[in-house]
Design goal:
Elements lengths: L10 H7 L25 H8 L14 H14 L3 E5 L2 H12 L5 E5 L4 H13 L3 E5 L4 H7 L4 E7 L11 H10 L3 E5 L4 H4 L9 E5 L13 E5 L1 H15 L5 H12 L1 H20 L4 E5 L9 H7 L6 E6 L2 H11 L4 E2 L9 E3 L11 H7 L5 E5 L5 H26 L1
Parallel strand pairs: 2-3, 2-4, 4-5, 5-6, 10-11
Antiparallel strand pairs: 1-7, 6-7, 8-9, 9-12, 11-12
Helix pairs in contact: 1-3, 1-10, 3-10, 4-5, 4-9, 13-15
């Protein structure tokens, strides 16, 4: 028996009750179906299931009751017709892009991407006969100039990783649709609470559920959301035959994470705004990037398409890599990690971690300097986090001054 659900519910209600399918036992929490396969009452029933005449489950690589609940809840939240849960965020990126292309097609993507996403666009796609063009995502004229008659997909992150650029999703969607291409948006930095790409005109939205959706550093996962026809005809065959599916256990963890997503993201965003204000006034910070501030380079676009800031902050220290490393090594509460969206505040040095695979020229082009740090704000007390940063940045500034005196 299914739990009642209503698409008019507000997000907080949807994230607690949406998509629940209860067994005859009437359990309160979502059931965890840790099974690979399913049994049939008869050979005829099995035949009907495989022919698509019976909507039941066949094999957990194709679909699973627990995973289906996660997918349905994400559809209700995102306003999508259909979804597929994936084993990781990168499985979602790869599957979504591969579902949109074939040999001879062309893809346009923003340059500002996570390192593994750049690998798919620049290295993997050409091996399958798919050409790709990278553009400055904030420059709409570059998008227009790059599309071709054989362009089938446009891909972007907004806000971008790690420089938090904001790309005009509605405008890029219009450009994509002129040539009949699909716009695929990685929405992980905004979360589904602060930005709704499908409502802005995007055709596909993807998440690394590993990040805010789990939100507590427990499991890997991802999800692809789009219209039902595309999911069934393009994405599902890839799932069936290549197996990037989400595990039922991880889907159950993600379902529990969704219940508290608004509480966590709202608190993390409010704290991030406070920390951004503090960093903007610090003498050791040469550049501060936060989508919730009026001094963000694309502040007007952010206000147009986002209903909140972000839980992420990017900032650059004047002392370069030595100062950035000193700041990382100087924090106590904040932990050094390349993950994000966690209940624990995490800091990383993108040039040597998440984007180290990019050539130095590519990092420079994206503004990923040796002094840049990415901070994912957690659920700790804001004053404790600011005190932790103040201590670490004080050490960093002292180190920079000493280095400057030595070279003077």
């Amino acid at each position: 028996m299914s739990g009642y659900q209503d698409r008019t519910w507000r997000p907080a209600t949807t994230l607690v009750h949406g998509g629940i399918t209860r067994s005859p036992f009437g359990e309160t929490s979502e059931a965890m179906f840790l099974t690979q396969g399913f049994v049939y009452d008869s050979a005829e029933a099995a035949e009907a299931r495989f022919k698509g005449e019976d909507e039941g489950f066949i094999y957990s690589r194709y679909a699973n009751p627990t995973v289906a609940m996660f997918e349905e809840r994400m559809c209700l939240l995102e306003g999508a017709e259909a979804a597929r849960g994936t084993a990781s965020g990168m499985a979602a990126v790869n599957t979504a892009i591969m579902a949109a292309v074939k040999a001879g097609d062309h893809v346009v993507a923003a340059k500002a991407l996570f390192g593994s996403c750049r690998y798919i666009i620049e290295t993997l796609l050409p091996t399958f006969g798919v050409e790709a063009t990278l553009v400055d995502g904030t420059d709409l004229e570059q998008w227009k100039a790059a599309v071709r008659p054989n362009t089938t997909a446009l891909f972007l992150e907004s806000p971008t990783n790690p420089t938090l650029e904001i790309i005009d999703i509605a405008a890029v969607a219009d450009i994509a649709h002129v040539v009949g291409a699909r716009l695929i948006v990685d929405n992980v930095f905004a979360t589904p609470l602060w930005q709704s790409p499908l409502k802005l005109g995007a055709d596909v939205v993807i998440y690394s559920a590993t990040k805010h959706i789990d939100g507590q550093g427990r499991c890997l996962g991802g999800v692809i959301l789009s219209d039902e026809e595309w999911i069934e005809e393009k994405v599902h065959p890839l799932f069936k035959h290549t197996g990037p599916s989400l595990s039922p256990f991880n889907a159950w963890v993600m379902l529990k994470g969704l219940e508290t997503l608004p509480l966590r993201v709202e608190r993390q965003t409010a704290t991030a705004a406070m920390i951004a204000d503090y960093l903007a006034g610090h003498q050791g910070v040469a550049r501060l990037i936060y989508p919730g501030r009026d001094d963000h380079p694309q502040a007007s676009v952010a206000r147009k398409q986002m209903t909140g800031g972000s839980t992420l902050i990017a900032f650059e220290l004047a002392g370069g890599k030595p100062a950035a490393f000193a700041a990382c090594n100087g924090v106590d509460i904040i932990k050094i990690s390349n993950n994000l969206g966690d209940a624990k505040s995490l800091i990383c040095h993108p040039a040597t971690t998440t984007h180290q695979s990019l050539k130095e020229e590519a990092r420079a082009e994206l503004g990923i300097s040796g002094g840049m740090l990415r901070l994912s704000v957690g659920l700790e007390d804001p004053d404790d986090l600011i005190a932790d940063l103040d201590k670490a940045l004080g050490q960093s500034v002292t180190l920079h001054r000493g280095a400057s005196l030595e070279t003077a």
